[in-house]
Amino acid sequence: ERKVLLYHYFLFCFQQFLELLKSMTSSSVVDKPPVRRVAVFGGTHGNELSGVFLVKHWQENGAEIQRTGMEVKPFLTNPRAVKKCTRYIDCDLNRVFDPDNLGRTVVEDIPYEVRRAQEINHIFGPKGSDDAYDLIFDLHNTTANMGGTLILENSRDDFTIQMFHYIKNTLAPEHCPVLLIEHPSLKYATTRSVAKHPVGVEVGPQPHGVLRADILDKMRKIVKHGLDFVQLFNAGR
């Protein structure tokens, strides 16, 4: 009797193991809507010039960033700060896309960046709605020696994670780290957070108010590969 019980127990454990193994090795297709509306933001900080230069270039000649079946819109987010070549005018544009500021009553003394955030939310949002843009690349420079870094805001954003994987593989062996800024007690209300899939692109080292050709080229490649991925994704590939 003891042998029979041991046999059945072993059989039960083996079956559980097989089920676990199956769940670990199986895959499934998840149906997700195509990504049709994409924006490329430059000048969120007006003295970070790689994104400013690329957006201005693509506004004049956008053939490089257009893809079949997609609308790709290059957009200068903080034109006053760009004109003065300063990070911002009244407050950091990359911190004010929270419900309080986006719903703030427009009065004469409202900070310029808050008013600009509301304008951007009107064009590319509303934030958190079905009408919001599918994807925004927000282009930044840093004085830190980070190389080309991708910034992820949501660890459950499967689409963006797959895009980052594609970009990293395409750039290899060039290093391309991913920085996750998700935190339970930090609400980082970025400009790009208007979109369903926000993507930060941070490239350095580059002094503020300066352009470096190698940094510009690295940023350009990241955006190109990201757009290539979207086209492949939309085609079911």
Automatic annotation (TrEMBL):
<dbReference type="Pfam" id="PF24827">
    <property type="entry name" value="AstE_AspA_cat"/>
</dbReference>
<keyword id="KW-0963">Cytoplasm</keyword>
<feature type="domain" description="Succinylglutamate desuccinylase/Aspartoacylase catalytic">
    <location>
        <begin position="35"/>
        <end position="229"/>
    </location>
</feature>
<protein>
    <submittedName>
        <fullName>ACY2 Aspartoacylase</fullName>
    </submittedName>
</protein>
<comment type="similarity">
    <text>Belongs to the AspA/AstE family. Aspartoacylase subfamily.</text>
</comment>
<dbReference type="InterPro" id="IPR055438">
    <property type="entry name" value="AstE_AspA_cat"/>
</dbReference>
<keyword id="KW-0862">Zinc</keyword>
<dbReference type="GO" id="GO:0016788">
    <property type="term" value="F:hydrolase activity, acting on ester bonds"/>
</dbReference>
<dbReference type="GO" id="GO:0005829">
    <property type="term" value="C:cytosol"/>
</dbReference>
<dbReference type="InterPro" id="IPR050178">
    <property type="entry name" value="AspA/AstE_fam"/>
</dbReference>
<dbReference type="GO" id="GO:0016811">
    <property type="term" value="F:hydrolase activity, acting on carbon-nitrogen (but not peptide) bonds, in linear amides"/>
</dbReference>
<keyword id="KW-0479">Metal-binding</keyword>
<keyword id="KW-0378">Hydrolase</keyword>
<dbReference type="GO" id="GO:0046872">
    <property type="term" value="F:metal ion binding"/>
</dbReference>
